């Protein structure tokens, strides 16, 4: 069995250079890299940050002006006979955004690009909020009603914007499904291994991956995942509604405690981040491009703005105007990067482990142990250290689990663009559970499929290259919808607002008109 897993891992060795090529292109060509200033910026960086700047300007920096509006939409109580509420969609998208990348991605970015990478994560997130707004509005404009649910997102608006070509919707759906399925093994691995780590912290005893405990946990995880996945998007949202607030509150609370216990290191944190953003230390390569790319790359891995993958949650929401969910999804990027990722950065940078006498041993560790070792350095006393390690590992476990069920659910929504037949939907669910079981089996065999993270990186950038051009194709629709939203004149949103057919909104406006007519009678 071990030879089989090792062989599979080796097959994916080619992914790392391919992923790096697309992320670094065209800086990996000497003629481009030699261009002053411009040579530091890869196409991916220019697309993501450049598009965020463009959408910020064209929407009047809506991520700032309507931030409060987004909060009020989340707080608004609304009965949803069809689809899910804006709050449920927010939690569902947060289940995907607030994942292991919030710990592993930030820790890895600091290890590779230094603390300055965190600054560029902030920059990309600020402008990425406008990108997330744009793609969420498109998901809402072109969503479709399927019985008592809404389906929408990248495959749906992609199909419409590319001339209603069936192949476009199918291709984008398959791209997302393949990407999600490639990410599932790592998430299954993360859940089981983190539960094992928590058990070791509680018992104080080392547990081998081949122990009965791991097998029982693995079987239970597969059964629970299957139960949730086969309950459809409504059951998934009930789970994420409960878990997302819990994991966010615990994580924020624990890290804030560590910050309070180490207030003297806060100035060092900001000095290291802002200093490293523009003058990277030689130990991290000494080049501006490394810090910048790491920040944008890990920022995308975490908040997924511009990737189009979170748009499935946005399209599932029942709203009064497409732009409402755009404001909500923008807040999701803020929560993910400005709050959760920043807190992770505080722990890693303030601990000084990456620069002290233990730096060499710290760099040799994997990413989660790097983070836990940093937290340990900030925690006084063995008893408190054990409690902090347990709670942070527990949060990591929930991050991975919500991401796991979210990916299966989003794959189901994407599959609806191909076919809404039960056979297709059930097939997606079964394949997702089977691939999750594969990742769990890797954990039981004691093999870490590190190259699967490279597949995730490759999937991220390929979907970005597919999604960003679509956002520009649909930008005029978003800008017109935004102008209508800001006008607040009481008129319903219809096709006439954007000059393009959006069947659901026309049907909704017609029903609203019918109700007014009936009331007048």
TrEMBL record:
Superkingdom: Bacteria
Membrane topology note: Multi-pass membrane protein
Major subcellular location class: membrane
PANTHER family referenced in this protein's UniProt entry, alphabetically: AGSS FAMILY TRANSPORTER, SODIUM-ALANINE (PTHR30330), AMINO-ACID CARRIER PROTEIN ALST (PTHR30330:SF1)
Organism encoding this protein: Eisenbergiella porci
Organismal lineage: Bacteria, Bacillati, Bacillota, Clostridia, Lachnospirales
Annotated InterPro entries: Na/Ala_symport (IPR001463)
Parts of the chain that traverse the membrane: 31-57, 82-99, 119-138, 166-192, 212-230, 242-263, 269-293, 333-354, 382-405, 426-447, 459-479
Name this polypeptide is given: Alanine:cation symporter family protein
Cell location: Cell membrane
Keywords, in A-Z order: Cell membrane, Membrane, Symport, Transmembrane, Transmembrane helix, Transport
Any single GO CC term annotated in Swiss-Prot or TrEMBL for this entry: plasma membrane
Family: Belongs to the alanine or glycine:cation symporter (AGCS) (TC 2.A.25) family.
Gene Ontology molecular function: amino acid:sodium symporter activity
Pfam family, one: Na_Ala_symp
